[in-house]
Structure formats: structure tokens, C-alpha cells
Amino acid sequence: MPMYKHALILISDESDGQFLLRSVAQNFHEQGTAITLGHLTLDYRELDIASDSLTKDRQSADVIAAKAMLSRLVGSASVPVDVKEIVTINRFRDVEACVTGAGIDLVIMGHKNRLFGTLSSHSVEFINHLTVDVLIKHIITY
Question: pLDDT digit string (tens) for 76-98?
Fold first, then answer.
């Protein structure tokens, strides 16, 4: 019986996704854990106060780019991976809704140790806002 049934790997960009798929997903898959690769995109529609068409165009472009990135990552994955694009203005509420709705019991995120990393990284914040276990993997960049 696997320790975790379903893991959500939340990524920021393609390099994070490649690293986390190589370093984490394989191990959890071997334990019988289902893997979903997720990405957060800002929901500009909730910020819309002036031009609805400009906001929709920007939103569409961001979602299309994210889906293309996720498709490339799934194509390069060595394990079966599902995909979830989360368009949100409130990342904690919407990720929790995704976790609850999909039966996810582990969220995996990366963190880069870089200049101002403590100010720009949001990975650690998820620990205090989600009701499931959160694994933060240090991402090594060369």
C-alpha cells in the first residue's frame, strides 16, 4: 500500500518541472502514488476594471503558454502524469479546492536558493495554508 495515494507537483516553470519530474515523481510512482503535474496562472479577470477584451487576451495567452509547457513536460516524463492548470487569484483557496476535489494527499513544490529567495518563493507559505502534507524539494540550478 502506498504511503501517499495521489501527489500534486506544483511547478513554476519548465526547468522546475523537469527537475521535479526527474528527482521526485519517479520515486513516488514506484511506491504506487498517482502523479498530477500542476501549474498556477494568475486570474486577471478578477482584477479587470477597465478593458475586458485586453484582460481576456492576456489570460488566454498565459493559459495557452502554460498548457504548452505542461504538454512538453508530460511528453518527457518517464512515468504516467496527469495535468491540472489552476487559474486563480487566491492560490491557497484554489489549490486547497483542487486537492480536496481530486483526492490529493501530498503537494510537492520546488524552492530555489537564490538572491531574495525568501521574498520571492511562495512554496513555504503552502505549508500553513493546505490541509495535506507538503514536500518542498530544493531545486538545484547550475
Answer: 888 888 888 887 778 888 899 98
pTM, 2 dp: 0.82
* Residues 106, 133 contacting (CB under 8 angstroms): yes
**Consecutive H or E run containing 48:** none
What tens digit of pLDDT does each residue of 17-54 get?
A: 888 888 888 889 989 999 999 888 777 666 666 666 66
- The answer to whether 26 and 78 are in contact (CB under 8 A) is yes
Q: Using CA atoms, how far apart are residues 65 and 87, in angstroms rounded to an integer?
A: 13
Helix (H, G, I), strand (E, B) or coil at 63: helix
Burial 26-52 (b: 16+ CB within 10 A, else e): eebbeeebbbbbbbbeebbeeeeeeee
